Amino acid sequence: NAGVTQTPKFQVLKTGQSMTLQCAQDMNHNSMYWYRQDPGMGLRLIYYSASEGTTDKGEVPNGYNVSRLNKREFSLRLESAAPSQTSVYFCASGMPGGINEQFFGPGTRLTVL
Amino acid sequence: DAKTTQPNSMESNEEEPVHLPCNHSTISGTDYIHWYRQLPSQGPEYVIHGLTSNVNNRMASLAIAEDRKSSTLILHRATLRDAAVYYCISDNYGQNFVFGPGTRLSVLP
Q: In this complex, how many residue pairs, one in chain A and one in chain B, have their CB atoms less than 8 Å apart?
């Protein structure tokens, strides 16, 4: 099993450009999550999807949109990138309730100039 | 804001035990305590979790205070590969984890 995969691994954008970060999991998990991590900080939840067809805002949703394409895939879109969105983005999946062990992808390092 | 507080950093010598503390004074009765760690340039990985009783697994032990307002992650014999940022999270349903800045553990050879 590949676990949680993310593409791309690195990306440089100019201010105002748009892009979509892709995430897929092969563990048949119901829930998927997008986090961002700024240098020296902990992770902050952007959006999550409790199950296929549902999405909810996390702590820092402004400037992002998400799509839960199917049970496996959860994408994060930046419509008009800003330098403040320079960060490392992590996707995760899990089964909520009790333990809710979340499995994280390797991350996408995004720089917005 | 994170619902837990941890020391910013700790140091340990290789092959010695490490006790990483966490305060969660506002924890509710149904909140679990989760520990994750993040190795350099990687995403976080699950370490251990618990509710009321102490827990052991192959990676670590979790000691939970009787009043549940604090807990301690115990690495029995630290190795260089255990150098990471350790996050303590208290959460009920696990749908909105709040990761604070964590504790950066350095392991000295």
A: 62
Q: Are B77 and B94 in contact (CB under 8 A)?
A: no
B11 touches chain A (CB under 8 A): no
Q: Give CA separation, B66 vs A30, B31, B63, in Å.
A: 33, 14, 9
**Mean pLDDT calculated for residue range B13-19:** 96
Distances (CA, A) of A71 to A23, A30, A93, A97, B1: 11, 7, 10, 18, 30
The pair of structure tokens assigned to A6 is 């993310």
Residue range A54-71, pLDDT digits in tens: 999 998 999 999 999 899
- Given B44, B45, B94, which is nearest A96 (Cβ)? B94
Tell me the two tokens of residue A33: 């999550």
Q: How far is A43 from chain B (nearest CA, A)?
A: 5
Q: In what order do the strands lie in the sheet with B103-108?
A: B9-13, B103-108, B84-91, B32-38, B45-50
Describe the strand order of the beta sheet including A19-25 as a list of residue ranges.
A4-7, A19-25, A74-78, A65-68
**What pLDDT digit, counting tens, does each position of B21-80 carry?**
999 988 888 888 999 999 998 999 999 999 998 999 988 999 999 999 999 999 999 999
A89 → chain B, closest CA residue = B43
